[in-house]
Amino acid sequence: MPHELWQRLQTLVNAGKLPHALLLIGASNPANQALVQDFAEGLLCERAQAGRACTHCKSCHLLAAHTHPDYHRLSSTTKSVTIGIDAVRELVALCEQTPQCADKKIIIIFDAEHLNINASNALLKTLEEPAGNAYFILTTQTPAALPATVRSRCQALNFSNAMISAPLWQQEFYSDCDALFLHRADPLLLAKKWQTHSLLEVLEQLELYLSQKIEQDLQKNRFKSLDHVYHLRKIAMQHATVNPQLQLEALLIALYNDFS
Ligand SMILES: [Zn+2]
Known about the structure:
The protein is of the alpha/beta class. It has 2 domains: 2-159, Rossmann fold (3-Layer(aba) Sandwich), CATH 3.40.50.300; 168-258. It is 53% helix and 10% strand. The chain has a 5-stranded parallel β-sheet, with helices on both faces. Helix 9 packs antiparallel against helix 10 and helix 10 (220-238) runs antiparallel to helix 11. It is elongated and about 60 Å long. It binds zinc ion.
């Protein structure tokens, strides 16, 4: 999977389509974090080859000394599991300056689900219109824990394991989803068909399906649908006694209507 992550990031760069706000889902493990870091260093390096930093130029020396003025990373620390507003305000102020050394700034936020709500809000405007040629790379294992307002401002790439090789039932599940959103399947019949899976399992698959679709077409309605899924997942995780079948029916009707 790290290889896939690297490939997809380089594809974006080579196509000149690196978005100013990128959300990497399922890329928070140490191997992938190291890769994201390598990627950022390659972007800042003056003589990068195939995306890899040269380790010799001025930029690479500054990065090695942790003093590169155009590179910033935030993550929760052992002292605090949340990323607070002060850290984000500092970041936003830095973003407003022009790059000092490279032609761009790279800001990495590992485990962005740890941004507290004030920190997320402080970040929104900058994510939407990054000044100073800033590129944000956010990673998360649990996109559901990020505010929809943050998610919707980022282009998402999904590296959750389930996406890599879908077993048959998943493939069928995804074609059922296609049918639902194209109004070729009845939401109530689908809810009945999916009864054999737990509600959380269905929600997880819907989330993967929608994230994948968002990556392909960035349709606004998909974010709305994704929010419906996240909402129900929150409820389902907090209250084990809810009637899962009724909940799923209501959700599928809502998703169906998102695309009416
Ligand atoms: Zn270099």
